[in-house]
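Issue: copy button drops trailing tokens. Both records pasted manually instead:
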Amino acid sequence: MTNSTMMMGFLLMEISGMWDLQVFYAMFFSLVYLVTIMGNLVIAAVTTLDKSLHTPMYFFLRNLSILDSCYISVIVPNSCMNSMLETSSISKAGCVAQVFLVIFFAFVVALFLTIMAHDHFAAIFRPLHYPVIMNPHLCVHSTLASLLSGLIYAALHTINTFRLPFCYSHALLQLSCDIPSLLNLSCSDTFSNQITIFVSSLVICGGCFIYIIKSYIHIFSTVFRFPVGADREKAFSTCVPHILIVLIFISSGIYVYLRPSTMSASIRDMVLSMFYSVVPLLYNPIIYSLRNEQIKCAIRKLITRRRYSGNALRTKEVFPIQLSHSHGFGNI
């Protein structure tokens, strides 16, 4: 019986022999995880509760925040737990799930960033036609199409990877399961897999990036014709954070997935790969929370409304008789 048929799981790399570094790694990425989750939940809650933010742009921003929370939850908690418990094993089913979900969320995030660029283009370049271009049906259908195409794309790459026989070893040179590391373990020819990954990534990421850049060329050519004032500042405050997130997301993806794979990796390489995997997910809530005036204003309104309702509730609890009497007297 060959190793490929006996293999029931994989061993992830661990930062062994350096307890201080293990603790620092787990604490740092746990903090990044908590900040990312809390920031994205705040954005999702604010854009849901504040009716003034029920627009296409914030509809996709809310979905993007939910996706980012799911994306980072696939990678970071398991890696931090393995580091603290000094365990490195992952079942084959767990590895399949991790690869599938990472590809799925990354693909859908790329599409959402492209749709958001289209939304900005329609809002600034064609404001009179904006309600028709970005109507609610289009928003819902484009979201469902992104999710469905993401499922198909992730399934194809996952199946194409795990149909290979893994007989060299079952030790992955990464802190989480990814396709480049898995291909290094296969004893069959992986050239077609590598070409498929490279071409599909180039087409998807390249196509999204080209469309986003083209949209923003049109957007800024229009914005620079605006008179200096509130309209120009509002346009820049909306578009610049989105461009930053796109650049960070695509450059991180290139570093993690399209760099040359090797049969040996240093701890520095592994930690950098993890770092570049989670940084774009952290930047989304930070950039949109700190730079977006509408989000900050909505947060202040919700806090004020909650504080006011809390004070009113305490007043009713302290003076229930007086309030009921005054209410009845007013009716007379």
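Record 2 (pasted manually too):
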Amino acid sequence: MPGTATPPENHSDVSLQVLQPVRRENVVALVGNPNAGKTTLFNRLTGLRAKTGNFPGITIEKTEGSMDLMDGHRVNIVDLPGLYSIAGATDEERISRDVILGQTPGMAKPAAVVVVLDATNLERNLFLISQVIELKVPTIAVLNMIDLSRRDGLKIDADKLASELGCPVVPVSARTGEGIEQLKQVLHLSIHQKETDRAVPHLLHDTCAGCSCPYKGRYDWAEKVTEACLESSRVAVGRKTDRIDRILTHPVAGIFGFFAIMVGVFYLIFSLASVPMDMVDAGFGWAQEFVGSYIPEGHLNSLIVDGVIGGIGGVIIFLPQICILFFCLSLLEDTGYLSRAVFVMDRLMRHVGLPGKAFIPMLSAHACAIPGLMATRGIEDKRDRLVTILTLPLLTCSARLPVYAMVTALLFGDEPAKASLLFTGAYSLGIIAVLVCAFIFKKTILPGQTKPLVLELPSYKIPSLRTALLITYDRAMIFVKKAGTIILLISIALWVLATFPTVEPPADVVQMRQQIDQLQTAGQTEEADALEYKANVRESEHALENSYAGMAGKLIEPIVKPLGFNWQIGVGVVTSFAAREVIVSTIAVVYGVGEDVAEENPDAFIDRLREARKPDGELLFSTATCFSLLVFYVLAMQCLPTQAVTRRETGSWKWAMFQLGYMTVLAYSASFVTYQVVSLITA
């Protein structure tokens, strides 16, 4: 076959008209090069949402869906990893080869293999289909992105290509839906065709998976087939793309361009997310009031209102920011830009031992570490992937923002310029920590040479709004299901720790209650309400101090005192090891403000914290303590859902515990140094 443009023996007579009906197994395998649009086609055929993008190897796991054919017959479609060859030894190549050959446990040999070809880059895609055809499985070639090839001045003779390949060829656009119905018809006929002897010329070298495959012969064959089937007038288009790439992939201009784009993305996140976040917050506040009004006061009321609804609300409030981030990243990915960004950043990241492909997970982690950790599946080298997983949680995620907001308000509430610089500094500290820790890990516990980045730069295209919305929905559901569910359970556990054991109200609260009765009898309702509020806050403060959480705070006070923290902040640190944002509501309670006031009147919350003092009369939230607290929360691992995902992605609790340990030691050490240095400076 390779070496000439002659079709393989016994294939030239294959046509749609001669397919004989014979029932076969109902599995169709979808294979193709990275960026050929394979997963987009899978989504179009099945309606099942899966991650789609221009980054090579984006689909690491097999994804399955089903589709109804013309006669109502249902087939299962397996979306295999993007790959360039099925003869190699990588995980992606092994998975795909096993499925096609019927060697995957629990899965029959496919009745047909659909090979997705990028119509804008035909010659390169023909190498893979030459290997698939040799496996003697009914094969269908799909010319995807046919609309983009027409735009680029490419004209492909599909009939001629079908003759050269010896299998049906269907031009489609998975993005717009063009040609999808014709593909379904071809699939229907192919699945029911008569089993034939699909003999192909066997080549002589590099035996792999039962077939011979010398690379040069295949590339020569692909070149001749392309010359026979393709007419091109794309020179002008190529020059235009080259002009754009000279800027976006420039060693200096490319980096500045990337940061300019990311500044725009983060501006959209913080400017557009405020309204939906307020709506989510108000919605959960209403839900707490509504449900609380139907449940008698007591532990059950507190559990449902504070533990369940409050716990879920504390997670969902960050969902708008995450959705906006993934929507923007999906659009950038679909245009073809993110592959350029990976190429540019690889030069910088390689110096610290991180691969360029770690850049996309790092972007995702700025919304939430969980999807960022999952995105590391695109990193082939196991050591590089492990280093990325271990360091990703150091990046600032949405859950840290309430802590940053509280500290910046305490320090620079009336100076927005300084507050914005402090925010930027916190983000920068996380990035620097990732680079430094990755460098240390690659030089010590995970040594190894970072592999060179081999990256295909896809064609530029107009992004699909539908695809971006589907990806955003999928990532939102991952956040809600994976993080929200776990945090809900943790919130309930924290409620138990902060509620029990129950204690009698202190003497001063009893006196307040007596005064309240007297004021109400005298008709002084406003004074009674004000005193009632103070009594409730004092009672909550006393209950928390004597709860299991309060006991833990006092127990660790000697440990956190060198950081400038007292036992109340210690309680916040303990509770926030489940989820970082918990510290804000915890501190609101222990300092007699109340979580509702902290949300509805942030100024009163901050003013109360500014007035808080240690037993010796010194301000508790001094400049040194505020900086110490900020540094601690930038670097500490305080997210149990992230720990659970680390364990799942690495397959071992050993690495999850190592991650927790080194980040805690790093946070404590950096916070200690910060407190001591700032104390000396401000003394």
